[in-house]
Amino acid sequence: MLYLILTLIVIIFICLVYIFFKVNKLKDIKKSLVLCEEKINEALSNKYKIVVDILEKLNDEKLKKYFVYTEDLSLAEREKSLFDIGFKVNKNLKENKTKLKKFENEMKELNTNEETLDGLKDFYNANVLNYNEVFYKKYFNKIYKLLGFTEFRSFKIRKLEEYEIFKL
């Protein structure tokens, strides 16, 4: 009977140590994700300023009506909204070569911002995969939920063709 109790104590101790290391790993990854979210938010704010500036200079009411962006949207929704309007603005400018020449600097800045966002989203998505892999381990995910951890959602991966419009 004593061996059974000792065996159970050892098993419980090993499980607690395992959980301790996994919780610390989740905390570290979550810290990276929160920092990356802040950087993405900053890049989205910059992109928003660029897009609004272009829309004001274009004075195209149709494009302005299409643009939906508020701070209460999720990070992914704001990113999608800015990508969509950037796509439409770029398409609009490519149809009119004189406008494209006039907005060449703004479009380069928009393109640079898009590349920055892509790098941040790739880093974010890789960390989300790592985090969710640990978070969804069978049996332990209930413990993680009790400790206040929640799942993270990744950004949508776009096809290369969707970015072709941004090339000058």
Task: Count structural domains.
Answer: 1
Through-space gap between termini: 77 Å
Structural class of the secondary elements? mainly alpha
Approximate strand percentage: under 5%
User: Judging from the principal axes of the Cα atoms, what is the shape?
Assistant: rod-shaped
pLDDT averaged residue by residue? 82
Radius of gyration: 23 Å
Helix content: over 70%
Number of helices: 7
Number of DSSP strand runs: 0
**Segments where pLDDT lies below 50 for 5+ residues?**
none
The string of secondary-structure elements, in order, is: HHHHHHH
Oligomeric category: single chain
Biggest β-sheet description: none
Descriptive overview:
The N and C termini lie far apart (77 Å). Helices cover 79% and strands 0% of the residues. The mean pLDDT is 82. With 168 residues, the chain is mainly α. α1 (2-58) runs parallel beside α3 (75-95) and α1 (2-58) packs antiparallel against α5 (104-135).
What's this model, at a glance?
The protein is mainly alpha-helical and 168 residues long. It is built from seven helices and no strands.
Write the layout of secondary structure elements.
Elements: H1 2-58, H2 61-66, H3 75-95, H4 97-102, H5 104-135, H6 140-146, H7 160-163
Helix pairs in contact: 1-3, 1-5
Provide tags for this entry.
168 residues
